Amino acid sequence: MRDELSDRGKQILEAIIEDYISTAEPVGSRTISHRYGLDLSPATIRNVMADLEEMGFLASPHTSAGRVPTDKAYRLYVDSLLEVRAIGRGEREQIKRHCDIRGKQVGDVLKETSRMLSSISHYMGVVATPHVSANVFRHVEFVRLGGRRVLAIFVLQNGTVQNKIVETDTELSPVDLVAMGNYLTEFLQGLTIAEVKQRIIEEMASEKARYDNMLARVLDLSRLSLPDDDSELFIEGQSNILDLPEFADVERMKEIFRAFEQKGHLVQLLDRCLTAPGINIFIGSESRLGPLSGLSLITSTYATGKNTLGVLGVIGPTRMGYAKVIPIVDYTAKLVSRVLELE
């Protein structure tokens, strides 16, 4: 068995992968010989395909004499063989229309972005909203609801509004709440939520807070009111994979849909992408998520300035059209980043 793939082996493997992406049918040597104009006999192609199978690039389905690519083959294809095409003008215009933020909440734009990614790729679109801790604080308001219940309204720099109802130790008057909101808005202006939490912890430990009753109450109220750090996940287009032949098994489809309903493992996978800016591609078992082993995920981070905010991408079968999907994901992430910076 050869340690490295020859140029002939790469050429035949690329033809097999592209044929399988197009047809979802196991590929035989005669098909490669006829369709791809290789100046090789079917017998020679068969021998090369046997070598490719021995090296782990191809597998033989029990019901067919043809071969199908493995995850290892797709990884080589994406890393070394693929020619990514330029995104078309029509696709650019469609993406721009859906990413128009004017008059919309940021969350609505991101949800629409996941729908657009699904529509334009014909697979599933996914967008993970920014973790709250990465967002910059703009201002806070407190509204008395009755008794000791207070509505805290946090407004973040990207336009997101977070509401939270808290219960205080003592009743606070509307005048006190306005004063507290004004003080915190000035005191915490320009910090990320993560920095806000750290600042409040430091101030609560200080001597000044210990002897200033009103400051202690302000800091305690802000501690209770800070928004949770959950990232929301938008997934659109699950039905797009229902008609794909590789997912014809009903139990397999149920397993995949349960994984998307639970979302937790997918969020963890997307969080791994936050530390690796730009395009990331997980092929099949590389995601280390059992139910998603027959799927690939292409993602890119979106950011404002140097601050990575979230992740967006496309989920499809391992035989997805990588040449088409990669530039769509890349362009969308860059456009969303620009739009959020202008907001």
Automatic annotation (TrEMBL):
Domain Heat-inducible transcription repressor HrcA C-terminal: 108-326
GO MF annotation list: DNA binding
SUPFAM superfamilies with a match to the protein in the record: GAF domain-like, Winged helix' DNA-binding domain
Annotated Pfam families: HrcA, WHD_HrcA
Gene3D superfamilies, per database record: 3.30.450.40, Heat-inducible transcription repressor hrca homolog, domain 3 (3.30.390.60), Winged helix-like DNA-binding domain superfamily/Winged helix DNA-binding domain (1.10.10.10)
UniProtKB keywords: Repressor, Stress response, Transcription, Transcription regulation
Function text: Negative regulator of class I heat shock genes (grpE-dnaK-dnaJ and groELS operons). Prevents heat-shock induction of these operons.
Family per record: Belongs to the HrcA family.
Protein name per Swiss-Prot or TrEMBL: Heat-inducible transcription repressor HrcA
The encoding gene: hrcA
